[in-house]
Amino acid sequence: MSIRVLLNPINREIFAEKGDILLHRLQEEGIHVEALCGGKGLCGKCRVILDKGKVEKRSLLPDKLLSHEELESGYYLACMVRLVEDCEFTIPLESRIENPKILISTELDIPEIKPAVKKYLLESKPAKSSNLLLSYRRLKIKDYTGAPPRVPEEIYNKITGLNDDTVTITVSRTNGFPHSS
Ligand code: FES
Fold first, then answer.
1. 26 near 33, Cβ under 8 Å?
2. How far away, in angstroms, is 11 Cα from ligand 1 center?
3. 74 with 44: CB under 8 angstroms?
4. Which neighbouring-strand residues pair with 171?
5. How far is the CA of 78 from the centre of ligand 1 (A)?
6. In the chain, what are the domain boundaries?
7. What architecture is the 3-95 domain classified under in CATH?
8. What percent of the chain has pLDDT over 70?
9. Residue 141: CB within 6 Å of ligand 1?
10. pLDDT one-digit tens code per residue, 92-108
């Protein structure tokens, strides 16, 4: 035998079979309520208020998502309501979705990301030179394009003094100018 379910304030009457879950019946009838967790009793969004009748709960655990006052006032989570007899509910404003939105996955055209700090491998160590400015230009940095980075003199001297070590240059862009360390 069908169960009659009256819904306020939208003034709709729907029918269900004994044991049906209220949220599922609402969705099947095209009555949209918030259900972010998909009916798992995790989000606490599918609130309804039982005005008349009796229902069963699928689980008592999600009740923790409702306050003591709400439980006292007859609030239920629609996804936890098992319909057992004729009843009447109010769908409160906060649970209603007037214009349901569908999330559509899309590919965003994200421009190339230019990190402010990047590490490069030094391809070959520069030879010592008395002209520091020219020496900077001779720094061969793997995969690096752009203006020659400014290397503090003491670091430059350290690089040229190294034997066979691998040297990594960290280039950071400050005020648009590459600076290395
Ligand atoms: S749909 Fe999330 S708690 Fe009911």
1. yes
2. 23
3. no
4. 118, 180
5. 7
6. 3-95, 117-180
7. Roll (3.10)
8. 73
9. no
10. 999 988 755 555 566 66
pLDDT at 159: 72
Amino acid at position 118, single letter: K
pTM: 0.56
- CB of 23 closer than 8 Å to CB of 58: no
CB 32 within 8 A of CB 56: no
Q: What is the pLDDT of residues 105-148, one digit of tens each?
A: 666 666 776 777 878 777 766 666 666 665 555 667 777 777 66
Separation CA 78–CA 37 (nearest Å): 12
* Helix or strand (DSSP H, E) at 158: helix 153-161
Ligand 1, closest atom to CA 62? 3
Structure tokens that stand for 165 in this block? 């070590």
The answer to whether residues 159 and 169 touch, using CB atoms and an 8 Å cutoff, is no
Q: Are strands 81-83 and 55-57 parallel, antiparallel or unpaired?
A: antiparallel
CA of 64 to the centre of ligand 1 (A): 12
| CA pseudo-torsion sign 153, 157, 160, 165 | negative
